[in-house]
Amino acid sequence: MGYSRQVxxxxxxxxxxxxxxxxRKAQRALDAFYAVCPEAETVRRRIASTASQxxxxxxxxxxxxxxxxxxxxxxxxxxxxxxxxxxxxxxTREDIEPQYVCKKCEDTGYVDGRMCACHRALLRQIAYExxxxxxxxxxxxxxxxxxxxxxxxxxxxxxxxxxQMRYILDYCRRYADNFSKDAGNLFFTGATGLGKTxxxxxxxxxxxxxxxxxxxxxxxxxxISLERERFTRPEEGGDTLELLSDCDLLIIDDLGMxxxxxxxxxxxxxxxxxxxxxxxxxxxxxxxxxxELEKRYxxxxxxRVLGFYDRMPFRGKDIRAKRKFGSRPDGVR
Length: 333
Ligand SMILES: [Zn+2]
Prior knowledge:
- Helix content is 57%, strand content 9%.
- It has helices spanning 5-36, 38-60, 64-88, 93-96, 117-134, 161-177, 196-209, 219-229, 240-246, 262-278, 290-296, 299-308, 319-324; strands spanning 110-111, 114-115, 185-189, 214-218, 249-255, 282-286, 309-313.
- Helix 11 crosses helix 12 (299-308).
- The protein folds into two domains: 24-100, no CATH class; 135-324, 3-Layer(aba) Sandwich (Rossmann fold), CATH 3.40.50.300.
- It is built from 13 helices and seven strands.
- Strand 1 (110-111) and strand 2 form a beta hairpin.
- The radius of gyration is 30 Å and the shape is elongated.
- By secondary structure, the chain is of the alpha/beta class.
- The structure holds zinc ion.
- The site of zinc ion has 6 residues, from helix 5.
- InterPro entries: AAA+_ATPase, Chromosome_initiator_DnaA-like, IstB_ATP-bd, P-loop_NTPase.
- This is ATP-binding protein.
- GO terms for molecular function: ATP binding.
- Residues 182-282 form the AAA+ ATPase domain.
C-alpha cells in the first residue's frame, strides 16, 4: 500500500495515544477507588500474591495439586470480595480496566505480528484527512457536482456544454466505481473553474474509500517539494519522488502552473513516464492547450500523454463565478 512515511507515523502516534489514554484512564479510576476503599488495594495485592505462590508451588513440585487447589479457592474468594467492594462503591470492572478502542489488538495496531484491521482503517482515514487538508475544496463528491451550471445551448448542432460535461461526469463516475491498481490515465483539459479539481477529488475520495493510496497535489506543490529535496540526502527524509512514482493513484492538478526549470520539467516527465511503464494510474489536469503544453514541455511529452491518457475536454463558463454571484444555474426555470 502506497502511503507516505508521514501517514504511517501519524497512525503510530494515534495508536500510542489511544493505548496510553485507555491505560491512564483505568489507572486514574483505580486510584480513585483505592482512595475511598483502601481495603480493596490490600485485596488486590493478596490476589497477586496467590498467583505468584501458585507459580512457586509448581516450581517446588511437591503436593502441587493440593497447593494449587487451596490457592485457587483463596484466589476466587478474594476476587469475589474485590468485586463486592467495587460494587459497594459504585464502580464496575469496565471503569478500572483499560477500555481500548480496538479490543482485538488493544490499540497496539498488531495481532500476532500482523497489521490489525483497525490500523489499516486508521491509515486510510489519515491519508484521507491529509488529502482533505491540502485540497482547495472540502473533499468533493460526484453527488454535489451539478450539471445545472453548464449551458444546454447547442452550437452548430454539436454537443452542448452540459451534454459534454454529463459525458465526462459519467465517465469519471465509472472510472471511480471500477477503480483498481491498473485503471487507466485521465487528462483533464479546459479553462479554470470548470470542475476539473472537483472531479479529481471525487475520484480520489472514491479510491481512498476502496483502500488505495492516493497522492493529490498541484504541480506547483510537487515542484516545491522536489526542489527542496533535490540536495538532501536520502536519510534526511524527502520521499516525494518515490511517493509520486509509486502511489496507487497520483493526481497532478494545474500542470503547467509550476515554477519552470529544466530540473522540474525533467522530473515531471520522469514521474509520468515511470508510471506509464509501471501501469499505475495518473490523473492530470491543466488549463493549457496541447500547443501550449508542447511549447512548455516538448513534443515527446505531449505524444506520451496523447498515447496513454484518455483526454477529457471540459467545457463551459467559469462555474465558480456563477456560484459566487448567485446567478441562477442555466436551464433552471
Ligand atoms: Zn486493532
